[in-house]
Amino acid sequence: MPMTMAEKILARSAGRSTTIAGEIVEAAVNVAMSHENAGMVLHHFKTIGASRVWDPERIVIVFDHRIPAESERTATTHKTIREFVRAQGIRNFYDINVGICHQVLPEHGHSRPGELLVGTDSHTTTHGAFGCFGTGIGATEMACVWATGKLWLRVPETIRIEVTGQFPAFVSAKDLVLYVIGKLGADGADYKAVEYAGPTIDAMTIASRMVLSNLSMEMGAKVAFVEPDEKTVRYVRERTDVPFEPIFPDRDAKYVQTLKVDVSTLRPQIACPHAVDNVKPIDEVGEVKVNQALLGSCTNGRLEDLQVAASILRGRKVHPETRMLVIPASWAIYEEAMKAGLLFDLIGAGAVICNPGCGPCLGVHQGILAPGERCISSTNRNFQGRMGSPEAEVYLGSPAVVAASAVAGRIIDPEKL
Question: The pTM is what?
C-alpha cells in the first residue's frame, strides 16, 4: 500500500508495516524536547506518580525563551530544571549559552531523518526539514512521554506542495512560506502533514528548508517535511554518531491536496497585523512606518539571514527613528557571524546585537513594544499583543525586508532602497 512520509514514519514508530490517515497509533518517541516549560512538564510528571524518566539519553532540554532569566520566577524555574536534569542523568541539557531549541537540536545531531521527534513548543515542526516527524505536544503529554517513551498520535492526511522556479533578487524561503500560508489560510493544514518538494526545494540550503517547516505550523500543520536528500544526510552525519534510516514517500502516495507554486515572479510577502495568514505582496502594504526592526528567531536567525541583512546594511545606517535588534539563533551562529565580520557590519549600521534566544518574539523581554508602535520582524507570529502591548502592531517579512526597512524607517522592498 503506497504511503506518505507521515504514514511511513508513524508506522515504523508504532512497530507496524503500514498505517493509513485517520488511524490512531501508539508511537515510540525517539527524541523528546522541552525548553523552560520543562518546569510544567515536571509538575505533571510528579502528579502522575512518575519518579524516573524512561530514557535520559532521549530527552533534550534547552533554555532559550527567557535567557538570561528576566525575573525571579524564571530564575527559580531554571534552578528547578537544572536540579532535575542532574538528578535524572539527562546529558542533553543546554543552558543559557547555547541557543534556541529549534536551532540547537539540529546543530547537535538530534534531528534525524526517519525518526519521531516531539517537543513542548508549537514550532517543533521545524525538524521536518530533516525528514523527521517533528511535532509539538502539550506539557501533560510530554510528562507521559518522559514516563513511558510512547505517545498516541492520529496519522495525519498530507498536503503536497510542489515548488518550481528561481527566486528573484531579495525573495527567499520566508516569502514562499508566507505566500503559501496566505493561500491556504491559518487553518488550511489543520492536523495535516505537509510535504515540500520540487527542484526549488532541492536547491535550497538546509537553513532555508527549516524556514518552510518552521512556519508551516502557522497554517495548522502537524508536521512539515522536506524529503531528506544527500545534503540532509551529510548535515546530520557530521553532527551525530547515532545511526538513522531516512524515509521517503512512495511515488503513488495519496495526498488530500496538491499545491503547485512557481516562485519566478514571487514578490516579497508581508504578513500584516494581526494574523500570519493576512499576507500581502509588499507593493500592496502601503506606507507603514516602523519603530522597531527585529532580525532573528527560530525562523530567520541563521547565518544566511545575517549575511543578507549585512549586505544591505553595509555602508548604510539604521533610520534615526527606528531601533534594529539582531538575535542570532545560536551561539554557534553568533561565532560564525563574528568571524565573518557580519556583526561588525550590523553594529556599524546601528543595530543592537542581543544574545541568542527567543527574545522579544514571545513578548517578555529584550525589545517588547509600547502602545502604538510597529515592528517589522523576521519572526513567526504577529498576533495582537505577541510582542508586548496589545496596541502595538507586528508585521512579518524576510530578513532582506527587515534590514531594508530598518534603513528606510518604513516597510520597503529591498530593491527600492
Answer: 0.96
